[in-house]
From TrEMBL:
InterPro entries: 4pyrrol_Mease (IPR000878), 4pyrrol_Methylase_sf (IPR035996), 4pyrrole_Mease_sub1 (IPR014777), 4pyrrole_Mease_sub2 (IPR014776), CobA/CysG_C (IPR006366), Siro_Cobalamin_biosynth (IPR050161), Uropor_MeTrfase_CS (IPR003043). It comes from the Bacteria. Residues 5-213 form the Tetrapyrrole methylase domain. It comes from Enterobacter chinensis. The gene is cobA. The lineage of its organism: Bacteria, Pseudomonadati, Pseudomonadota, Gammaproteobacteria, Enterobacterales. Pathway: Porphyrin-containing compound metabolism; siroheme biosynthesis; precorrin-2 from uroporphyrinogen III: step 1/1; Cofactor biosynthesis; adenosylcobalamin biosynthesis. Transmembrane segments: none annotated. This is uroporphyrinogen-III C-methyltransferase.
Length: 256
């Protein structure tokens, strides 16, 4: 019987040491690693000698490896009895198509496990100095995509504007101005604080702050682009006092 199995591992938002203990263990024992563009190379360096490393990274407007082919790769290598790590940015089930990949594995009767990760939407924001909730400013948070799958209904920004919580938008950079405008039309105050965080938790992290009406100007000035988080809500105001500089932990020193 085949011992093949796929671990869908969340790599965390970027700082390599934000991977879980279990995720690092999986990488160190993998025979094949299939990884995304946003995955830190420091994590790949933890793979054992002889591990086959396959980059299926996507850029926003360019999909080098179609999803069906990624699914087929996982099925092939696990089917042939290998220990496969599917390494994905953030958490595998937060807009990462992890659900689709696991579905395929389940359909094909292959063994799989999910190793959750720290999503950029929460941990990435924390590294930028923004707490996703705060008792005085936000009692809920909503993680939404700015980019809908073709054929799906567009995001109901007017309804989202009515929810009194922090709004975290992933994959929204190409439509930033339109999204802000829709939120204002939906009833949000034009002065609502907004931050855009690019490469959250990485050494190249960069941020723009403003309001719904003017954030696009600062984003243009700094030339920010994907991958970035757009966060809308009062918690953005805490950034000034909660920003910190993160320490670096080398993975080679981590014993798992
Ligand atoms: N599964 C991932 C999200 C995948 S969708 C997670 O849980 O974080 C990809 C989008 O996530 C990007 O377009 C961007 O909006 C956001 N993203 C992921 N990593 C990021 C990072 N380090 N900094 C800023 N945005 C990030």
């Amino acid at each position: 019987m085949s011992k093949g199995k796929v671990w869908l591992v969340g790599a965390g938002p970027g700082d390599a040491s934000l991977i879980t203990v279990k995720g690092l263990h999986c990488i160190r024992h993998a025979e094949v690693i299939v990884h995304d563009r946003l995955v830190n190379p420091e994590l790949l360096a933890q793979a054992p000698a002889g591990c086959l490393i396959i980059d299926v990274g996507k850029t926003p407007s360019h999909h080098p490896v179609p999803q069906e082919q990624i699914n087929a790769l996982l099925v092939k290598h696990a089917g042939e009895g290998r220990q496969v790590v599917r390494l994905k940015g953030g958490d595998p089930y937060v807009f990462g198509r992890g659900g689709e990949e696991a579905e395929q594995l389940a359909k094909d009767g292959l063994a799989f496990e999910i190793v959750p990760g720290i999503s950029s939407a929460i941990g990435g924001l924390a590294y930028a100095g923004i707490p996703v909730t705060h008792r005085h400013y936000a009692s809920s948070f909503h993680i939404v995509t700015g980019h809908m799958c073709q054929g799906n209904d567009p995001q109901n920004w007017h309804a989202l504007a009515q929810i009194n919580g922090t709004l975290v938008i992933l994959m929204g950079m190409t439509r930033l101005t339109e999204i802000c405008q829709q939120l204002i039309e939906g009833g949000m105050s034009a002065g609502t604080p907004v931050a855009v965080v690019m490469y959250a938790s990485q050494s190249r992290q960069q941020m723009a702050k403003g309001t719904l009406i003017d954030i696009h100007l600062e984003v243009e000035r700094q030339k920010l682009h994907a991958p970035a988080l757009i966060v809308v809500g009062e918690v953005v105001n805490l950034q000034e006092i909660l920003a910190f500089s993160a320490s670096h932990i080398a993975l080679n020193q981590v014993v798992v």
